[in-house]
Amino acid sequence: MLRHFLHIADYSKDELWDILHLAKEIKTKFNNREEYKPFKDQSLAMIFAKPSARTRVSFETGFTWMGGHALFLGPNDIGIGKREAIKDISRLFSRYNDLIMARLFDHHHILELAEHASIPVINGLTDYNHPCQIMADILTVWEHRGNLDDLKITYMGDGNNIVHSWLQLASIFPMHFVCCGPSGFEPDEKTVKKVKESKLSTFELSRNPKSAVDGADVIYTDVWASMGQKEEVEKRKKIFADYQVNETLMESTGKDTMFMHCLPAERGREVTDGVMEASYSIVFDEAENRLHAQNAIMVTMVN
Predict the structure, then answer these.
(1) Residues annotated as catalytic (active site), given as ranges
(2) 8, 102, 220, 297: which could form a disulfide with 47 (CB 3.0–4.6 Å)?
(3) Residue 165: its pLDDT value, please?
(4) Count of C-beta atoms within a 10 Å radius of residue 256
(5) Same domain membership, residue 296 and residue 274
(6) Are residues 138 and 280 in the same domain?
(7) What is the overall mean pLDDT for the chain?
(8) What is the pLDDT of residues 207-223, one digit of tens each?
(9) DSSP string, the chain
(10) Distance CA 97, CA 93 (A)
């Protein structure tokens, strides 16, 4: 049966655990440089409306290592949803390739791409969510803690696509998730509602950084102005100034707390250089795990 990887919430708890366990197995193979070629003589079409160093390098490196050939298609190559109909691209690439990964602005574009595809489509990011990142994130937390019991995640900043994917995960894996940021930058209400309806996790919306991080296992942040919002940079710098993750905030949690960031980080804005370089910062383990989590997702999609 054809499966896509568009949202965390499309999968059951057992299915997500299977992907995480597979990611650990593939990571060991990769680090030991073992022979592992599940994609021999296959191709991955990588569609980028939004550029990204980590997404391109991790997908291309992973698919190549697993025996396949990854093709990069930038905004000038396609102009998805503008120069050519999305359903035409989807049906054409389904005849050329074995998988599609797309990193897009409009979430409806990834849904349409998947609707008309006869091969698996993987969501490399949209303005609504970022499921591959959150699979890498939870893999990293699991590796560092050894379990996911009694997990408290505090996210500082804008209720953006990262938050939406964390919330989708919270509707499947039990946790206490806190989104702390200024008024007017809350996450999508329907996605928050899914967490509440699941009755698995608790969600807290906070305006107070100090109380929000109390007892947190992880403090997570992202840039204050994402791609497509750069004209708002100066305005957002003022609005989000009180929500910077700095050494004082990290020390106020009352426990050994890990720091995470999906990168790229704007050091000195949403996070200080000191926090990024601290021993509790696991951002580069997290970034590395994009490779392994995505490899596991791709293998799962074709099995």
Answers:
(1) 262
(2) 102
(3) 98
(4) 8
(5) no
(6) yes
(7) 96
(8) 999 999 999 999 999 99
(9) ----B--GGGS-HHHHHHHHHHHHHHHHHHHTT----TTTT-EEEEEESS--HHHHHHHHHHHHHTT-EEEEE-TTT--BTTTB-HHHHHHHHHHH-SEEEEE-S-HHHHHHHHHH-SS-EEEEE-SS--HHHHHHHHHHHHHHHSS-TT-EEEEES---HHHHHHHHHHTTS--EEEEE--TT-PPPHHHHHHHHHHTSSEEEEES-HHHHTTT-SEEEE--SS-TT-GGGHHHHHHHTGGG-B-HHHHHTSSS--EEEE-S---BTTTB-HHHHHSTTB-HHHHHHHHHHHHHHHHHHHH-
(10) 6
* Average pLDDT, integer, range 70-91: 91
The CATH number of the domain holding residue 294 is 3.40.50.1370
Tokens of 212: 């929000």
Q: Please, what's the b/e burial string for 84-93 (b: 16 or more CB within 10 A of its CB; e: otherwise)?
A: eebeebbeeb
Q: Do 63 and 167 sit in the same domain of this protein? A: no
Any domain includes 53: yes
What is the per-residue pLDDT across 6-29, written as a single tens digit (0 to 9) for each? 999 999 999 999 999 999 999 999
Contacts of 250 (CB under 8 A, 6+ apart): 213, 219, 257, 259, 275, 278, 280
Report in angstroms the alpha-carbon separations of 227 from 34, 125, 156, 224, 231.
37, 11, 18, 10, 10
How many whole angstroms separate alpha carbon 118 and alpha carbon 220?
Answer: 36
d(C-alpha 139, C-alpha 148), whole Å? 10
In a domain, residue 33? The reply is yes
Residues 92 and 151 in one domain: no
Range of the domain at 165: 133-284
Q: Evaluate whether residue 2 is within a structural domain.
A: no
